[in-house]
Amino acid sequence: MIGQDVEVPDASATSRLLTDLASLVGEAHVLTDPDVTASYGIDWSRRFSGPVLAVVRPADTAQVAAVVAVVVAAGVPVLPQGGNTGLVGGSVPSPEGPAVVVISTRRLTHLDPVDDLAGQVTVGAGVVLADLQRHVSAAGWEYGVDLAARDSATVGGTIATNAGGIRVCCHGMTRRQVVGIEAVLPDSSVISHLAGLPKDNTGYDLTGLMVGSEGTLGIVTGARLRLVRPAIASAVALIGVRDAADALALVRSIVPRGVRLLAGEILDAATLRLVCDVTGFPWPLADHADHVLLVETESPAPGEIALDIPLDRDAVVAVDAADRARFWAYRDRVSECLSTLGVPHRFDISVPLERIDEFVAEMRNRLVSIAEVHTVLVFGHLVDGNLHIEVLGPDADDERADALVLRCVADHGGSISAEHGVGRAKAAYLGLSRSEAEIAAMRAVKAAFDPHALFNPGVLLP
Length: 462
Ligand SMILES: Cc1cc2nc3c(=O)[nH]c(=O)nc-3n(C[C@H](O)[C@H](O)[C@H](O)COP(=O)(O)OP(=O)(O)OC[C@H]3O[C@@H](n4cnc5c(N)ncnc54)[C@H](O)[C@@H]3O)c2cc1C
Known about the structure:
Layout: H1 11-25, E1 30-31, H2 34-37, E2 52-56, H3 61-73, E3 78-81, E4 100-104, E5 120-124, H4 129-137, H5 155-160, H6 168-171, E6 178-184, E7 190-193, H7 206-210, E8 219-226, E9 233-241, H8 244-254, E10 261-268, H9 269-279, E11 291-299, E12 315-318, H10 321-332, H11 334-338, E13 345-350, H12 356-367, E14 375-381, E15 386-392, H13 400-411, H14 436-449
Parallel strand pairs: 2-4, 3-4
Antiparallel strand pairs: 1-2, 5-8, 6-7, 6-8, 9-11, 9-12, 10-11, 10-14, 13-15, 14-15
Helix pairs in contact: 1-3, 12-13
Bound molecules: flavin-adenine dinucleotide.
The site of flavin-adenine dinucleotide has 37 residues, from strand 3, helix 5 and strand 8.
C-alpha cells in the first residue's frame, strides 16, 4: 500500500525518474530491459514474483542515499535487494504491484582489513558470505554465520533477515555478530555507527532494530561484524536415528563435556533419499534409518575425534576436510534437489525441542485433509528446534497447506519463522507468533521510519 499523500508517477514522471537515477549512478547501473530485470523480480524458489520498474545499482552509501531521495520523492516503492536468495518472498515485489525500484547492494563490496585487536571487521552490505569468510579466514578468524546460500547471500541480506544457518548452536544468529551498522533511512538520512565499541549505552539500539527488519525500515549499506576463532579441527558424523528425540538425546550423550558443538542437523529419510537420487551420492549409512543426524564437534587436534558414538549405532565419521565436505553436501544440497520436484510450500519454523516429534506427527496428520499434498519433507537445524518443512502438491497460490502448518506450529508453542523472516509469505500469519500489542508497536516503528510506507510494502507487516 502506498502512503496516501504520495502520488503514483505517470509515464513522463517515470521517464524523469529514470533520467535522474542515471545521472546519479550512471546509465549502466540503471537496468530497465525486462530481460535483464526479470531475475530481480522473481525469488529463488520461483514461488514469488512481481513487477520491476528499474534496478538501480549504486556504488556507495552516498549514492544509495541520493537514489532513495529521488525514488521516494517520486512516490515509487523501494525494494532493497542483496543476493535474492531469500525464501519468503521479501526480496521481490508484490504480484499486485505497483512496479518497484529495486536498489541492489551488489556493488557495495568493500572489505576493510580485519581489526585483529578487536576481532572485528567492517564490510559493505553487498559482500557475499563466502567472500567474507575467505577474507577473515586469511587473517586467522571466522565469521560465525554460515549457510548453504553462502555463494550468493550478502551481508546486508543476512542482516536484514537475521539469518541463522548451520552454526547457530555455536555462535548464535546474525544479530549476535553485528556490532554496528551503516544504513540509509527512507528519508535518505544516513545512520553510521561502526566504531564497534563493546560497551556503548547511548540510547535506542538502532543497529538491533535494523537487524531482522527485512528491508522495511531502510537499506543497510555497511556493517561492523564480530568475528570468532575458527575450530582447531573438527569431526563430522552421520548417524542413523529413530526420530528427533532420539537424535537430541544422542547429541547430549556423545558430545563430551567441554567440547564445542559446531552443528547438529537432521534429515528425514525421504529428504536424504531425494538428495541421493538427484546427486547420485550413495546412501551414506550401512542400513536404512528413519532419520539421519549430522553432528560436528571441534577436535583437540587434526585427525582426532571428540565424539563418543556407541558402537551399536549405524554411523560414519569424517575427519579430513574432503570427507567432512562430502558429508556436509548431503545437507547443503537439499534445497537445490528440492527444486527438481516443483515449487514447494516452504516452512521454516521452530518449536520447543521436546515437542518436535509430536509436532511433526500432528502436522502430517492434519495435512492428510488436503488431497493434493503428495510429499512432505522435513529436515533442518535440529539442535535449534528449527525445522524446514517442504510441502509439495498444492498450487503455489493455494494457501491451505500454509494456514494448516502454521496453525499447527502455533498450537505447539512455536514460531512461524525461525530464521528466513516473515517476508510476504508469512505476513498474513504474523498474529500466530506475535500479539496484537507487539504488532501495533511494530507498526508504530514502521510509520516513524517510513511514513509513506514505500519501503518493501506488504513485507513483514500485513
Ligand atoms: C540454498 C539456500 C539455503 C539457505 N539456508 C539458509 C539458512 O540456513 N539460514 C537462513 O537464515 N537462511 C537461509 N537461506 C535464506 C537466505 O539465504 C537468507 O534469508 C539470506 O539472509 C538472504 O540474503 P540475500 O542477500 O540473498 O538477501 P535477499 O534475498 O536479497 O533479501 C532478503 C530480505 O532482506 C532485504 N534486504 C536485502 N539486502 C538488504 C539491505 N542491504 N538492507 C536492507 N534490507 C535488505 C530484502 O528486501 C528482503 O526482504 C537459504 C537460502 C537458500 C537459497
